[in-house]
Sequence to fold (283 residues):
Amino acid sequence: MSDPQAKPRVAFQGERGAFSEEAAVKLLGAQIDLVPRPTFEAMFAAIGEGAADLILAPVENSLAGSVYRCYDLLLESQLHITAEVILPISHHLIGPPGAKLEQVRSVQSHPVALAQCTKFFEQHPQIKRVAAEDTGGSVREIVSAADPSRAAIASRRAAEIYGGTILQSHLEDHHSNFTRFLLLSQSAAVPKGANKISLVAFLLHQPGALFHALEPMAQRGINLVKIESRPIVGHPFEYCFYLDLMAPPDAPETQAALKALQNYTSEMRVLGCYVAAPPPSTD
Fold:
């Protein structure tokens, strides 16, 4: 941003009303410029193209697991993690104005959203599932079509944005449904109070490498809260490991553990140091 007083432009994947948009507002407030991008690739390219200042990327869901494409794109980029936010996911059945639940014959949404509402479809076997690119975009399409037999699954925010009617709320199979998002920036500045570190490690291809790499964490009482392996492109059946550590980055014990870890890697890259999001409430 050339103007320091300008609102930050935040890119997210999907159309207006997507859960990513809701997460951006939760983390940064309403005084931001939202930049919808059609794909994860387009989202990660937004800063380099000058279309955005920040990116909000989903990296894992408490039911569906990790969003692998975002992990791969994060590694390919030179962006840094500066914050995280955890968003509770509530799925709503949304139809055009005047529609009623008994009229619905097809429901479209992102495949992950459809998969998280299987009990609803079991209870309504006459309703066909239709996979689409995006939750928010699905609401826009069904409202525009004005066909009462077509509905979408998306957020309450999407219904408000496009003028849809909520026909049924909380379709998700499990109410403890949360998605974790990372805020990405070109800046590597560490925020005050940072207590979480994300890094990627390319371990030496030898017996016991993972055990020896993680041992320094355990010895120093550092909590490893996530570990994720991903294939290394061009190196068949070799993997890099993404690690999330609960530790203040400047603490001597943390620095010692990271230095010890580096001894068992061919490459180690800190992706970001930031303040951990509060744990989600499951009440």
